[in-house]
């Protein structure tokens, strides 16, 4: 059974940092396209970062220069380092991974998703 489990969320003050983790089990997610999304109450889901192994990472303009992804392939884990956090970063953060044979473009419709981890940034 494939599972993606996010962790590392919490409450921080503006300017602080958090590191999210997405641990995958059941298949080699970290060898495939993976992404971080977020959704704030009343807002649409936003793609935060999307990354492929040994390839470039796309970051949303709203997080560029502050957020960084990394992956540990042996541990089958994706990370999101979030620095200089702002109140507008407050959201539920989800990781997603492409299925076998899937691509980054298909991740939202057919990818595997975690349950999310809440990030709250206070001013």
Report on the structure:
This protein has one helix and eleven strands. The strands form two sheets. Strands 2, 4, 5, 6, 9, 10 and 11 form a seven-stranded mixed β-sheet that branches. A four-stranded antiparallel β-sheet has the order 1-3-8-7, with no helix packed on it. The chain has one helix at about 105-110; strands at about 5, 10-15, 20-25, 35-40, 45-50, 55-60, 65-70, 75-80, 90-95, 110-115, 115-120. Strand 4 and strand 5 form a beta hairpin. With about 120 residues, the protein is mainly beta.
Order of helices and strands: EEEEEEEEEHEE
Low-confidence stretches: none
**Distance between the terminal alpha carbons, to the nearest Å?**
40 Å
Can you count the helices? 1
Evaluate the radius of gyration: 13 Å
Helix content bin: under 10%
Tally of strands: 11
Structural class computed from helices and strand pairing: mainly beta
Strand content: over 45%
Shape summary: globular
- State mean pLDDT (0 to 100 scale): 94
Summarize the main sheet: 7 strands, mixed
């Amino acid at each position: 059974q494939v599972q993606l489990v996010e962790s590392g969320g919490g409450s921080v003050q503006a300017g602080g940092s958090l590191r999210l983790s997405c641990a995958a089990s059941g298949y080699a997610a970290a060898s495939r396209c993976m992404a971080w999304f977020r959704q704030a109450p009343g807002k649409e889901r936003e793609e935060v970062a999307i990354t492929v192994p040994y390839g470039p990472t796309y970051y949303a303009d709203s997080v560029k220069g502050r957020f960084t992804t990394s992956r540990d392939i042996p541990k089958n884990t994706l990370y999101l380092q979030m620095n200089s956090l702002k109140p507008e970063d407050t959201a539920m953060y989800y990781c997603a991974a492409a299925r076998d044979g899937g691509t980054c473009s298909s991740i939202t419709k057919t990818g595997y998703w975690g349950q999310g981890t809440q990030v709250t940034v206070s001013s």
